């Protein structure tokens, strides 16, 4: 990889992303946050707040990786980086199965033991969390988060900014809209419209 790496967001989810990036051999050296953090397990150097006007590291050729769990905030930060011509590589754990026949955008995080099977397409700035299974021909739109252990059967579509909770199961061919939240352990057997929160088995509308 050309250039040093800085992580944006260095707590909770960011620590997992940093750990994965280092494990994958990325030269991670810096972090960006509003303030200096108290918990710094990887001894990273503070680079500043990327949203601050005084931030002066855009022209240093760094790669920026996204360590923010919230879908909307992560996507907004990604736009800030792209606007400043920063690079947004994917962070991919060493132990994943990615079919050679998938399409993958930029700024994604793919955690340990995730599987993405043939002909699936993943947009930009997504989180495919630990142990999730994305079966054949799925479509994951920008900014979505597929939670730990979630299973998307074949040809499932997940809209932008949507979150699929831990261990949820989505039946084949289902279309999940944009800005949807699917609760942990939910079993989805019907399409879910935009801006909906569902949970349970079978999934029921919470709001
Ligand atoms: C690495 C990581 O940590 S990634 C993050 C992984 N985290 C997850 O997957 C958690 C996903 N979030 C959830 O499951 C949440 O419970 C949500 C978003 C579905 C709902 O949260 P809230 O809106 O706060 O709902 P609240 O807790 O008030 O519950 C409302 C009702 O839904 C039920 N409910 C909430 N979550 C679930 C669920 N996952 N499955 C079944 N029922 C549920 C509650 O029992 C309650 O039922 P009632 O009205 O009959 O009493």
Task: Explain what you see.
With 207 residues, this protein is α/β, with parallel strands linked by helices. It is built from two helices and 23 strands. The strands form four sheets. Strands 5-8-11-14-17-20-22-23 form an eight-stranded mixed β-sheet, with helices on one face. Strand 1, helix 1 (13-23) and strand 2 (28-32) form a beta-alpha-beta unit. The radius of gyration is 17 Å and the shape is globular. The model has no long low-confidence stretch (mean pLDDT 97). Acetyl coenzyme *A (ACO) is lined by residues 129, 147-148, 165-166, 181, 183-186, 197, 199-200, 206.
In short:
Pfam families: Hexapep, PglD_N. This protein is α/β, with parallel strands linked by helices and 207 residues long.
Uncertain spans, ≥5 residues at pLDDT below 50?
A: none
β-strand percent reads 25-35%
Provide the helix percentage: 10-25%
Give the mean pLDDT.
97
Radius of gyration: 17 Å
Note the run of SSEs as H and E: EHEEEHEEEEEEEEEEEEEEEEEEE
General form: globular
Number of helices: 2
Number of E strands: 23
Span of the ends, CA to CA = 45 Å
Largest sheet geometry: 8 strands, mixed
Bound molecules: acetyl coenzyme *A
How are the strands of the biggest sheet laid out side by side?
Answer: 5-8-11-14-17-20-22-23
Assign the structural class, choosing from mainly alpha, mainly beta, alpha/beta, alpha+beta, or little secondary structure.
alpha/beta
């Amino acid at each position: 990889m050309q250039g040093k790496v800085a992580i944006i967001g260095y707590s909770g989810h960011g620590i997992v992303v940093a750990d994965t990036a280092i494990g994958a051999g990325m030269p991670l050296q810096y972090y960006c946050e509003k303030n200096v953090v108290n918990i710094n397990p990887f001894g990273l150097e503070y680079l500043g707040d990327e949203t601050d006007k005084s931030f002066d590291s855009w022209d240093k050729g760094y790669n920026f990786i996204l360590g923010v769990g919230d879908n909307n905030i992560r996507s907004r930060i990604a736009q800030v980086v792209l606007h400043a011509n920063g690079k947004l590589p994917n962070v991919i754990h060493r132990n994943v199965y990615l079919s050679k026949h998938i399409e993958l955008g930029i700024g994604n995080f793919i955690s340990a033991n995730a599987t993405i099977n043939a002909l699936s397409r993943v947009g930009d700035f997504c989180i495919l969390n630990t142990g999730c299974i994305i079966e054949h021909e799925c479509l994951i739109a920008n900014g979505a988060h597929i939670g730990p252990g979630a299973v998307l059967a074949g040809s499932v579509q997940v809209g932008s900014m949507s979150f699929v909770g831990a261990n949820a199961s989505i039946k084949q061919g289902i279309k999940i809209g944009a800005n949807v939240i699917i609760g942990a352990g939910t079993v989805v057997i019907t399409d879910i419209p935009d801006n909906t929160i569902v949970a349970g088995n079978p999934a029921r509308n919470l709001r």
